[in-house]
Structures are given as C-alpha cells and as structure tokens.
Design goal:
161 residues; alpha+beta; Alpha-Beta Plaits; two-stranded antiparallel ribbon; folate biosynthesis; nucleotide-binding; EC 2.7.6.3; ATP binding
Length: 161
C-alpha cells in the first residue's frame, strides 16, 4: 500500500546544499519511492550544539511502497553513503541528516522509530520547509503545519536563493 511520507534533510559539513540535492536525487530514483514535493533550501542557525557552522535544511514529500521501518533503513543507508557517521553525538555537525518526519497518519513509538518526529512542531527549520510543500498538512496529533509555524520564532532560518 502506498503512503505519503515527509522527510527532513539537513547538513552543515562540506557543500551541504550539493549533498542535499544529491540525496534527494538518490531517494527519488529508488524504485519504491516517487518524489511528490520538495521545499526550498533554508539556512538555519545550529540547534543544540551552537558552536558549529550553519545548517542547510529542506524537506521532501514522497509517495512510497516501503513501510516506515524500511524507509527509515533506506534513509540511514543514504546518510552512510554520504559519509555520515552516527557516533552518538546529538545535534553536532554532519554531512547529511535525514529524518523521517511523518508516514501517512501512522503513530509509531518503538526502539527504532518515533512518528511523527517528536520535536518537529517546535523547530522552524523543519516547519518552514514543510510549509513550502503543504502548509495545510495536518501532522498527526499536532496540528496543521501553517498553524504550528505561527507559534514559532523563525528568525535565524532564512530561505536561500
């Protein structure tokens, strides 16, 4: 069964914009994924660990035949293909970060995956790109992207030309 999933992308090492473009291209060519929408790129200040370069962030919508855990595995494989090493450090610099934000209306809480992404409604660098794709999209259990965005300070998160 096909599902619409939203994926957040980010990176701040190397040519982050080029890496995000290449990651989107790689995902879009997977036989079980069809790219359904994409955002602009945004420059955003680091979150958590602030002593690092600014991030480039984006989001995509995909229609997929993969289940949520299989899609997560594909995202993790894609990160590794672009040099991402998950060493346990949270919020540090990275070549590529791919977050499965939502998967249809699924609510998942297990040792590998939490859907919808637990902190997405508090992060302008997630909601601004999502609003480019579908500002009326209702995040399961949280509300519409556009309404949630109105509650956030978006300073420090700017679209790139």
């Amino acid at each position: 069964m096909k599902a619409r999933a939203f994926i957040g992308l980010g990176g701040n090492l190397g040519d982050a914009r080029q890496t995000l473009e290449a990651a989107i291209d790689r995902l879009a060519t997977h036989p079980d994924i069809a790219l359904a929408g994409r955002s602009r790129f945004y420059r955003s200040a680091p979150w958590g660990v602030v002593d690092q370069p600014d991030f480039v962030n984006a989001a995509i919508a995909v229609d997929t035949l993969l289940g949520p855990h299989a899609l997560l595995d594909l995202l993790l494989d894609t990160e590794r293909a672009f040099g991402r090493v998950r060493d346990g450090e949270r919020w540090g610099p990275r070549t590529l970060d791919l977050d499965l934000l939502t998967y249809g209306d699924a609510i998942v809480h297990d040792e590998r995956l939490e859907l919808p992404h637990p902190r997405m409604a508090q992060r302008a660098f997630v909601l601004l790109p999502l609003s480019d794709i579908d500002p009326a999209y209702a995040i399961p259990g949280q509300g519409a992207v556009g309404d949630l965005l109105e509650t956030l300070d978006t300073r420090g998160c700017e679209p790139l030309s």
